[in-house]
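Q: For a teaching handout, I want to show students what a protein-ligand complex looks like in token form. Below are the inputs, and the small molecule is adenosine-5'-diphosphate. Please produce the holo structure.
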Amino acid sequence: MSATPKPFEADVGRVLDIVVNSLYRHREVFLRELISNASDACDRLRYLSLSEPELLGEDPEFRIEILLDRGKRLITVRDNGIGMNREELERNLGTIARSGTARFVAELTGERTRDLELIGRFGVGFYAAFMVADRVVVVSRRAGEERGWVWASDGRSGYLVEEAETVPPRGTAVTLHLKADADEFLNPLRIEEVIRRYCDHIAFPIFLEVEPAAGESRTSLQQRRQINRASAIWTRPPQEISDEAYVEFYRHVAHSFDRPYARLHLRMEGQLAWSALLFIPERRPFDLFDPHRRHGVRLYVRRVFVTDGLEGLLPRWLRFVVGVVDSEDLPLNVSRETLQHDAVVAKIRRTLIRRILDELARLAQREGGEGERPSWSDWWCEFGPVLKEGLLEEGEWRERILALARFRTTRDEGWTDLDSYLSRMVKGQKAIYVLTGEDAASLRHHPQLEAARARGIEVLLLDDAVDPFWLERVESYKGHRFVSLAKGEVDFAGIGEAPREEAEPALAAGELAKLTARLKSALGEEVADVRPSRRLADSPACLVVPEYAPDPALERLLRRHGPVSPPPRRILEYNPRHPLLVAMAGMIGDARRSLEFDELARLLLDQARVVEGEPLPDPGAFARRLGRFLARAVDRAAPTAGDAPQADAAGAASPEGGR
Ligand code: ADP
Ligand code: MG
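A: Here is the structure, written as tokens, with adenosine-5'-diphosphate included.
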């Protein structure tokens, strides 16, 4: 070819650089990738031909052929599937079209050994061909189109696309010019072994045909023959399917290289007949939270691929599930839109959800993890936030999802589930206490937990973005209400062991009322209300919201993503036993200390905002105020300070007030 090649998209270049130079051990996977693509291409055309039978022309039998030319050192993988036109060749083979490869790119470090390991984990699809070939030529003709196209590349300088001189048959032929060190793939036995290992699940026949080198005579091994059994794996009895075949099928449908965490092979008979082979992955795909991501379950009707990602088939909160559902009852010739609302699909969906939750419950039982398999908590870390989205839906699945859920807790550093939580509830406890926020580690030190902790009451620390959303809708678990410590009035009377100091109030009722009123007048519009708190033990104050207001963590989240608006006014709760508040109560009525009281009230409010992660309306003023009081406290503490004159017109704070 004479024209200058087009450069690859930058990311493709990076992938190829690693692939071409790799000494990757499992180079034979190139064949799996090319056959997987060929199989997808046949699936897609078979579906299109249901409404446009003329696309099949004279050639209705789908097949994949592997041609081995020993003399010219060529391997060709050919299919009579959908094919690609010029634009599709450029887009699919010149840019990173596939999610698995995009994830690979996202994780590339530039460090050779680690990056090679990544190929093992993610795979690189079509580009795997360059592990064994120094030149790849793709000839393709889209079904129903007149012209054919040639795409060619050495995997380094870029690629060329030109019109094919003679019109090729429908479909795609990928020809690899084998590298000098890839002789093993000229051996038909080796090819056969690889196909048996990786492609046994492919539902189309795979033929191998060998062209002997000059001087070689054709042996029986070199007769054209079919290598796989070409029956869809999900139609076979499970006891006849090896683990490896399952794993390879998972990799084919998931476009992923890892191993599944669990699989579900169902064959339903009776009123509706359908089968399903589903997998639950072990690791979170990089686009799990992409709003456009759909679940990875392909719908087949009587072995014919119909569509993938059909929303009616699985809810969004199971979007990590991949696999195949094959129905005997659905009509073949209906649109995606019709299927979306089909009653048969809805029935299958219900059963699928139930069986998937059953399987997850089984996995959750064996907490410890089996062998290499991650433990349930580890799996929950990866996928729990998605599963919890299911709590937002009304209905029967809620309780089951809650039973699977794992939470951080004040009890220890690990995870807990709700049933264990219930079993540890203290005397008199009815509710499940929770606190929401951005991360469990900092929630542990939150003032709102203090009184609960002092009474030995365990609190769940909910730090997923989705937590405040479901808490708004889910009232209870097994009859126990969820109570957020950030909301409403908390009263632990009669629950757990009351700490001794709670019995003896530091301030009389009248003093409390005065202190509350005085704080209100000092803070004015900045707070919605002021009241003494029953949830604090060591901290002087905290901010809470009324019981029926949105959860503060939710409100903060919405504020961050919405138009700029000031935080709503909160209720300031103060600790009536804290020395600072006791001292402040003592300042009331002393006109000379009124200014100082106001300053302290502001400090109290601002430090409560800091703890909440709320922005301070005037951080400079906060810092100056704090500085003044600290200076005075240090001055007091200094042994030589004596009766140092007070510079501040507000007068001296009592010794306790400086604490
Ligand atoms: P993936 O198969 O995960 O999408 P690949 O890198 O293997 O990624 O292939 C990229 C894209 O190229 C495919 O999604 C498909 O659109 C196209 N493609 C590759 N091989 C073929 C083929 N034999 N027939 C038709 N299209 C193909
Ligand atoms: Mg592929």
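A: Two things your students might notice: Residues 235-365 form a domain with the Ribosomal Protein S5; domain 2 fold (CATH 3.30.230.80). The longest strand covers residues 133-141.
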